[in-house]
Write a structure and sequence with these properties.
Length: 205
């Protein structure tokens, strides 16, 4: 019995030491995750993108000290939303001549658009990608807007189309998100490599 009690006390001590040994960066990350809350929706985009970036910036030891599973559950809930950056990339992939050769380039810019009355118009994911053409060769990176309107319709617009929207100039270098009341939009930058990993496809920076 004494041996069992000793083992239990030792385990409790190890847990306590692990908690006390967390760095400030690890604690800050867990605070960021907790702030997202349980009601995950499109408005959660900036907080989720920021938390992912912060997690990737942690050291290997710091990553071991935090509860990644809790965050991954939150992130998965967001990415399951119909117009999420992941779903938009998957939809774009499905429209390629050779979906199995699909590869992502750079980050994904995800924007929410409202009208002057503040009513939702829809969401746009700006995605850089490539896939093999009908001759079995890559033609190089191409940019697309995957537009999901509030009525459920989805449209793909390439960067050689006059209606193509380029969001890169709206987000300052190093920033994760920006809101523009003048243009009625909120833009969040998602880690393209992470989304490529979720899709199981190649990624190029």
């Amino acid at each position: 019995m004494k041996k069992i009690i000793s083992i239990v006390l030792l385990a409790a001590l190890c847990l306590c030491l692990a908690a006390c040994g967390k760095t400030q960066a690890a604690k800050d990350w867990e605070t960021s995750v907790a702030a997202i809350g349980e009601d995950v929706n499109y408005d959660s985009a900036p907080a989720i993108a920021q938390a992912r970036r912060e997690y990737e910036a942690l050291t290997d030891e710091e990553k071991k000290s935090v509860d990644l599973e809790k965050f991954e559950t939150i992130e998965k809930t967001f990415f399951e939303l119909p117009a999420s950056p992941l779903k938009s990339a998957e939809y774009l992939k499905s429209k390629m001549k050779d979906p199995t050769s699909f590869r992502l380039y750079g980050d994904i810019f995800f924007a929410e658009f409202d009208n002057d009355e503040g009513e939702l118009i829809g969401y746009v994911a700006q995605i850089g990608c490539a896939a093999k053409n009908g001759y079995g060769a890559y033609s190089g990176e191409e940019m697309y807007d995957v537009i999901a309107l509030a009525d459920g319709s989805v449209t793909i617009v390439s960067d050689d189309d006059s209606t193509y929207l380029d969001f890169t100039g709206f987000v300052p270098q190093g920033e994760i998100s920006v809101a523009s009341e003048e243009h009625g939009m909120k833009i969040t930058v998602f880690d393209g490599k992470h989304i490529a990993d979720l899709m199981g496809c190649e990624y190029f920076d």
